Amino acid sequence: MKTLKTILFAATIVSASVVSTLSAQQAAQPAPKHEFKVAIGDSVMIKRECQKYCTGETPSTWVWDKVHTVRQLGTKRFPDGVLLMNIYSWMCEDCLIPVNGRAEEASKKAAEEQKEAKKAFESGTPIEEIKPAEKPAEKPAEEVKKEEPVVAPVVEEKPAEEPVAEPAKVEEAPQTDREMEKGDSIKSKQNFKGKYDRFTIGVRGGVASLLHKTDNGSRVIGGEGLLDLQYAHYWTKAGRPVDLGILTGISLGYSQSGMKTGVNSQLNNLSDGDKNNPMTVDYTIRADQVKENDGAIVMEIPLMFTLIHDCGFFFNFGPKLMMPVYTPYKQTISDNANTLIQAHFQETDVTVGNEVITGILRDDQKKLKGTDNGDQFVINVLLGAEFGYEWILKGGNSLGLGAYVDYGVYSSYKNKTSESPLISVTPPQGSNPADVEVLSATKTYASKLGYVSAGVKLAYHFNFPKKRQYKDSKLF
C-alpha cells in the first residue's frame, strides 16, 4: 500500500511538470496575425448592424452615414480592429464596408475634412493606442460632430449597401464649380445667396422708326445705337429657380429715321406786290420725291422688372422715359424734269417757269440741312423688353447676349400741320424777285410722332457680391 502511494505521488509530479512545460512552449509562440482586407488610407463606412466599438461603447448616429479613412490596422488589445481617422475609435474589420471606387468623391471629401490628422499620419507621427477606459477617444468624435453637417438619424433599418450611394449625391457641387471656372452658363441651381446687386455696361443697336402720323408720304426705316449704364437689385429665395429684381439707369445714343413724300401743290390768286401795277399770280409747285432723315441724340431712363433663371436665361420688361436732346435733320429733293416752280399771270395770261421773277429752286435748296426740327426735349414713354442668355465668368461677373424691342405708347410731340407745300414761294415785291423756301417734311406734315426700335444687345455685368453660392435649402 505504501509502495502504491509512492508511485501515484511520483506520477502526479511528472504530469504537472509536463503540463507546465507545454504551457511555457505555447506561451513562447506568437499569436496568429490577422489578415486584413483593408489597407491604411482606405475609405470605409460602418455597417448599420454594428452597434458597438471594439471598446464596447455605442457609436453616435452620424457615424454610420460618414466615410472614414483607415489610420491603423490591429493592436495588441484588438488584433482584428481598425482605427478610424478623425473619430479615433477602434472598429472590428467585419463591421466595415470598403467604398474605394464606389464613392470616390465622398472619400476625397472625407480626406479633405481630415487633412490635419492625415498630415500627422503621413509625417510618421507615432499613434498612441486608444484605451477602452479613456474618454478622449470619444471627445474628438464630439468635436467632429459640431464641424461636420449633421445628418438626420434614420428610423428604419436599411441594408448596408444603401448608405454607400448617399455620399455620392452630395458631391455634385464641386463639379459645377469646375464648370463655372471654365466660363460655363449658370447651372445646377447656382446663384447668389439672399439678395445681390449688379452694375451693367452694355451696347445695343438695331433698326428704328419715328412712326410719323401723316396723310402725306411714307415712313423711312432708320437705325440706332446706344450705350446703356444700368443698375439692378435682385431678390432670391430658397427653392425658387428665378431671381426677381428691379432695373434702372440711363442710356445715351443716336437714332435716325424719316419719311418720303411728294409735292404737287397749286397756290392761286397771289398778288405780286406791285402797288403801281398789281398782278395776280397762280403758282404750280411740283416735285416727285422729297426725302427727309430725322436724327435725334436721345436719352433714356428705364424702370423695368427683371428676372434671371438658374439655367441662364434673363428677361427685362417695363417702361422707359425717352427724351430727344438734339434733333438735326436733312432733306433731299429729287432733281428731274418733273421738279418745277411755275407762275401763271392772270392779267396777261402768261405762264413763266423758273424765271427770276417767279423764283428758282437752287441746288443748295435741294439738299437742305437743319439743326432744329422742333422736337427737342419732347417726352416719349416707351414699353421695352429685353431677353437673352448670360454666362458666368471666372471672376464671378457675367456676360449677357440678347435682343430688345421698344415701342412708343405716348409722345408729347404735337404739331399744327401747315396747308402750305414743302416748297413755299413768296410772290415778287416790286423789283424784288420771288422768294423760294423749302420746309421740313416732318414739321410740316407730321401731326404726331411715335417710336419703335428693335435690335441686339451685348452687356457685361459686375455682380456684387461676386462669390457665388448654391441654392440649397441647407444653405439658406
Please write out the topology.
Elements: H1 2-28, E1 43-46, E2 68-73, E3 81-84, E4 89-92, E5 96-98, H2 104-113, H3 115-122, H4 139-147, H5 162-170, H6 173-181, E6 190-191, E7 195-209, E8 212-213, E9 218-235, E10 242-271, E11 280-309, E12 313-326, E13 329-333, E14 340-345, E15 350-353, H7 363-366, E16 367-370, E17 380-392, E18 398-411, E19 423-426, E20 435-438, H8 441-445, E21 448-449, E22 452-464, E23 469-470
Antiparallel strand pairs: 1-2, 1-5, 2-3, 3-4, 6-23, 7-9, 7-22, 8-21, 9-10, 10-11, 11-12, 11-13, 11-14, 12-17, 13-16, 14-15, 17-18, 18-22, 19-20
Low-confidence stretches: 127-148, 150-155, 157-193, 467-476
Number of strands: 23
Helix content class? 10-25%
What is the average of the pLDDT values?
76
Computed Rg? 47 Å
> What class do helices, strands and sheet pairing give?
alpha+beta
Description:
Helix content is 17%, strand content 43%. The protein has 476 residues and is an alpha+beta fold. The N and C termini lie far apart (97 Å). The C terminus is likely disordered.
Descriptive key words:
476 residues, eight-stranded antiparallel β-barrel, five-stranded antiparallel sheet, 8 helices, 23 strands
